[in-house]
Design a protein that fits this description.
The complex is a heterotrimer of chains A (354), B (131) and C (538). With 131 residues, chain B is mainly alpha-helical. Chain B has helices at residues 4-18, 20-23, 40-44, 54-74, 92-99, 107-114, and strands spanning 79-81, 87-89. Chain B has a domain at 36-122. The longest helix of chain B is centred in the middle third of the chain and has 21 residues, at 54-74. Chain B is elongated. Chain B starts with a helix and ends in a 17-residue tail after the last helix. A four-stranded parallel β-sheet of chain C has the order 2-1-3-4. In chain C, strands 5-6-7 form a three-stranded parallel β-sheet, with helices on both faces. In chain C, strand 6, helix 21 (482-495) and strand 7 form a beta-alpha-beta unit. In chain C, helix 3 (67-81) crosses helix 4 and helix 13 packs across helix 22.
């Protein structure tokens, strides 16, 4: 149901942009107002969300340790999976963010004749890393439309991305990989029963949206070609706050831009914020050195405790009889004990309840 | 523990990256490229017309050139029949560049602007041009 | 009590998913899968709200009128107090990598035991009440009204999670269901919704110093039995001291080791080791619990119970602390104690008086794990060991969840085992170290009334033990956790008969050659050592 709903929403978004541009002629809305609004929402929204996370403290050092701790000098520490200092944490976070280390651990379990077997399961990792890295490269490649002169790293990326020199314009591998990977991630939501069971509309929506974005991008580059020079004029107008709408850019471009705008605006309010959240995850970004360095809880407060004196008051006689040393020795007589139960200077803390 | 400093630093890095296209363009005037068709060969033409209509050439020239390469190099076919029935020799240097002898003012203008780096000149010799 | 099905039936886990969406599938309380509700007096002892008689199967849970407000306020407060909580509510992408990593899912096939869905039980409420999209779009944004059914579902499933953190190892963002369960339970406790099995030990520990409620003289007499047994086995009379001021070291163990097999064998191992070293140490009857069922209740309760360790160290004037073999105790010591009740500036940085090793890794808490301490001794050749005394044992090692994923003490115990046993075999890679499976009874689930849950939750662990039993003839499951020692024997009996359970220091005690000891013919269980028995018969 969530899937169908999300699919319909994405189709509607496409239609809105198409009708808006092709029939109503609102190029300036879809080419300037919407992208501006989307970028603003994106930037402000992301900052807002991160600050909101930052406002909640990390009261306890709850590192998930994924390997041998640092203890005795001759025991080999798993420095990246169980870091004991900043260098290790940086390494662990880098592995996590750049290579999806934890997801790489993924395994698959299977129950056969009452026996559980575990096998390697790297497809999710492969699709995820292919998806994220190609998305990043695709995004960076788009800088060519927003900068003059074009930074050299962008040209380098383009050359690498198109190094197979298939067709003209050259086929970018990342575009294809992105579409394949996101399709895999979508199909997995359909066909892996557990994943289908847990999926919400908000899981399908970004996937459909990204499928549509990648598809319109690819269509516009290879099939319904738009005039790239005009597109860059429009883009440059946006980033230099001097928006222009060059004539003659095909509707597919506006559809593409509209979908991207929706993605940007949707980003801060959705699970897509995992991109920022992963940096803040306390099980990953803390060193496991909490026995060596004291971690301070900013909202720590005194708690009611049962003190030793209260304990001894209750068990003094039994302790003395058992030969266990006590603070108040010799044994207190019954009269004294009676006194003790009354609030006196000696025993201002009441004896605990039974 | 809040790690406020680190979070703030992260936010600043995010802002720096996300707004790069904006501040990168401060004070830079964007000049749309106007490819020049002012060459002696074109001047001599009675009808200033490429082998196919301009709109087609603008959008599809890379596809056309790619086809030409395949026809010439792989199929040894050196004749191109245009939409209007006219025949042209399939040759980048002898057909295209004969008129468009100003690569820098014609090809490179848009290619540089849009960040396109065609690999025509990996094999072909670029026409000699004065600066 | 529910009748426990036979292993053959239980091992046929159905991973089928209901046709209905999970949000529309109300919780069904299955007997054998949950613990009893808390008795009122336990809650009264520690001043917890809403003490009353209730049973989870009751229609009416006797909640305060404004229970919904209490829950939502409780959530709000914790969202502001814990970055982990807010983050884990926000960033899950439901990739499903955690789904089959949970032993309770693997053992029950109940989709709500997938860590992701266990979290969604709370996340759905979070979205409905704490996010703009959920407030506006409700169900469409994955939001869900907080109803009594939802609350019951929380209780049922947050007490089917052993806070083992296995999901957290596999999650690409490190989302830790243990953290969500802990906070969930904390919120449930605002309404007096604990289990009897957790609240009882908490009350005991608060008043008497240990979960079992052993009073000081009882502790002492329990130790006398153990001392007698040691004398019978070795001919040596060890002399443990209690509450002794001026000792160099305070030793704190889980109280399970003071009472009941096979924990007591581990305890005997501690005492023999310390005696042989001539260590200047004392036990405490007040801080007689290393474990902390309070941490299964709320952070505050955890702190209230944990307080005793430093308080007692200060009162007795010791220099530093050694901690015994216990799982969640070490999660608490490693990740919470110093923050809760530190700084322990009245103690000194631990230095082994035998080897001179300075335990830099514990320089702030001043508390050293006994496996670290013993491994250091062995490495320095300070112990005379005869591993052949463990030759009747084919040993495998069960990493406890908390010591693996909340600390990382993995190789110290292995080093010790390899020095005190000749036959050691690892279980399959996916079931040990940071990927270890829970015994199925952690975080206060080791009651009797939820036996089916425990056997199901322990199924993956038992399965791995069965594998090494069949391939290597393993007959002893070693561990460094008191809950393991209490729970695993039952689990082994059920799934893998023929495998016994021992603490690490029981094996050390067996192998330890003590000065002036008589020829050993028995192990610490007072069972005849096979080859020695043969020798005597000649």
């Amino acid at each position: 149901m969530g899937a169908l709903f999300s699919f319909v929403v994405v189709i509607l978004l496409i239609l809105i942009a198409y009708v808006g541009v092709a029939a109503v002629g609102m190029q300036s809305i879809f080419g300037t107002v919407v992208p501006y609004a989307a970028v603003l929402i994106f930037i402000v929204g992301v900052v807002y969300r991160v600050i909101k996370w930052g406002k909640s403290p990390v009261p306890f050092p709850i590192t998930t340790t994924g390997g041998q701790q640092k203890s005795l000098p001759w025991i080999k520490q798993a420095k990246l999976d169980n870091p004991s200092g900043s260098a290790g944490v940086i390494g662990r976070m880098a592995l996590e963010i750049l290579l999806f280390r934890s997801l790489f651990r993924n395994s698959k379990s299977e129950l056969r004749d009452g026996r559980l077997a575990y096998g390697s399961a790297k497809w999710l990792w492969l699709a995820a890393i292919a998806f994220h890295w190609s998305f990043l490269i695709v995004l960076l490649r788009h800088i060519r439309l927003f900068a003059t002169p074009i930074p050299s790293f962008v040209s380098l990326l383009e050359n690498l991305d198109g190094f197979l020199q298939i067709g003209a314009p050259r086929l970018y591998l990342t575009g294809v990989i992105l579409l394949l990977a996101v399709t895999y991630l979508l199909l997995r939501r359909f066909y892996v029963p557990q994943v289908r069971y847990i999926s919400l509309a908000s899981d399908y929506f970004p996937v459909f949206l990204i499928v549509a974005i990648a598809s319109t991008g690819i269509l516009m580059r290879y099939f319904f070609k738009v005039d790239i020079v005009s597109v860059k004029e429009l883009a440059m107008g946006l980033v230099s706050f001097n928006p222009t709408i060059p004539a003659g850019i095909g509707s597919i471009f506006y559809i593409h831009v509209f979908l991207v705008s929706i993605l940007f605006a949707y980003f801060p309010f959705s699970k897509l914020m995992h991109a920022g959240g992963v940096y803040l995850s306390p099980t990953r970004n803390l060193a496991n050195n909490s026995r060596a360095v004291r971690h301070v809880n900013p909202w720590d407060y005194p708690v009611k405790v049962h003190t030793y004196d209260e304990y001894e008051n209750e068990f003094r006689e039994k302790m003395i009889n058992a030969g266990i040393p006590v603070e108040h020795s010799p044994a207190i007589t019954p009269e004294e004990e009676e006194k003790l139960t009354e609030p006196t200077d000696d025993a201002e803390i009441p004896v605990g309840k039974e | 523990m809040y790690n406020g400093g680190k979070i703030l630093l992260g936010i600043l890095i995010f802002l720096a990256l996300a707004t790069f296209p904006f501040y990168n363009n401060i004070g830079k005037a964007d000049v749309e490229p106007k490819p020049s068709i002012d060459t002696p060969a074109i001047q001599k033409l009675s009808e200033k017309k490429c082998i196919e209509p301009t709109a087609f050439m603008k959008a599809e020239h890379m596809v056309l050139l790619n086809e030409w390469r395949d026809l010439a190099v792989r199929d040894n076919n050196r004749v191109y029949v245009a939409g209007d029935g006219k025949k042209y020799t399939i040759s980048l240097q002898n057909t295209c560049m004969k008129c468009h002898s100003n690569k820098k003012e014609f090809c490179d203008k848009c290619h540089n602007y849009a960040g396109v780096s065609p690999y025509c000149w990996d094999c072909h010799l670029a026409p000699k041009e004065g600066k | 009590m529910a009748k426990l099905p036979k292993p053959e039936q239980l091992s046929k886990v159905e991973y089928k998913l209901p046709g209905k969406r999970w949000m529309n599938t109300p919780v069904e309380f299955k007997e054998g899968m949950y613990c009893n509700g808390t008795r009122p007096d336990y809650l009264e002892t520690v001043d917890f709200p809403n003490p009353r008689k209730w049973a989870p199967s009751d229609e009416d849970w006797k909640l305060p009128e404004n229970w919904k407000e209490i829950v939502l306020n409780g959530m709000k407060e914790r969202l502001e107090k814990y970055r982990s909580f807010r983050l884990f509510m926000d960033i899950c992408v439901r990739c499903g990598a955690c789904a089959d990593k949970c032993q309770f899912y693997l053992g029950t096939g109940d989709p709500k035991n997938m860590p992701v869905l266990r979290a969604e039980l709370m996340r759905s409420v979070y979205r409905r009440y704490f996010t703009a999209s959920g407030k506006m779009l409700g169900k469409l944004a994955g939001g869900r009204e907080l109803t009594l059914d939802v609350l019951k579902e929380w209780w049922y499933y947050f007490y089917q999670c052993s806070e083992c953190r296995r999901c957290s190892v596999f999650c690409p963002y490190g989302i830790d269901q243990a953290e969500i369960t802990m906070i969930g339970r904390e919120i449930l406790n605002l309404l007096g919704l604990n289990t009897d099995w957790i609240a009882g030990p908490v009350a005991n520990c608060y008043m008497k110093g240990n979960h079992l409620g052993l009073e000081p003289h009882t502790i002492k007499s329990n130790f006398e039995f153990m001392v007698d047994d040691i004398e019978e086995i070795t001919g040596i009379k060890v002399e443990p001291s209690f509450n002794r001021k001026g000792a160099e070291i305070l030793f704190v163990a889980p109280s399970g080791d003071m009472f009941g097999d096979p924990g007591t064998f581990t305890c005997m191992g501690y005492m023999m080791l310390f005696h042989e070293l001539g260590l200047d140490y004392t036990w405490s009857t007040f801080a007689s619990e290393g474990g902390n069922f309070g941490s299964f209740t709320s952070m505050e309760m955890g702190k209230r119970l944990n307080y005793k360790i430093y308080a007692e160290a200060k009162r007795l004037g010791v220099k530093w602390i050694i901690g015994g073999e216990c799982g969640h105790m070490w999660r608490v010591v490693n990740q919470y104690m110093d923050t809760w009740n530190g700084p322990a500036d009245f103690l000194e940085v631990p230095v082994s008086p035998i080897t001179g090793t300075r335990f830099e890794n514990a320089k702030s808490t001043k508390m050293v794990h006994i496996a670290e301490f013993t491994a250091d001794l062995i490495k320095h050749g300070k112990l005379k060991l005869d591993p052949s005394r463990n030759d009747h044992l084919k040993v495998t090692f069960h990493d406890s969840c908390n010591t693996s994923r909340g600390m990382g003490i993995l190789d110290e115990p292995r080093y010790i085992i390899k020095n005190v046993c000749n036959h050691f075999y690892e279980m399959p890679e996916d079931t040990i170290r940071e990927k270890t499976f829970c015994c199925g009874s952690g975080s206060g689930l080791n009651a009797a009334e939820n036996m089916e849950l425990r056997m199901r939750g322990g199924f993956p662990r038992a399965n791995a033990v069965k594998y090494v039993q069949q391939t290597h003839g393993v007959n002893m499951l070693a561990n460094i956790c008191a809950i393991d020692r209490a729970a695993l024997p039952t689990l082994m009996n059920y799934w893998v008969p023929g495998v016994d359970v021992a603490g690490l220091h029981e094996l050390v005690g067996n192998a330890l050659v003590m000065k002036g000891e008589k020829e050993r013919t028995q192990d610490l269980r007072l069972e005849d050592l096979p080859e020695k028995e043969g020798a005597e018969n000649v």
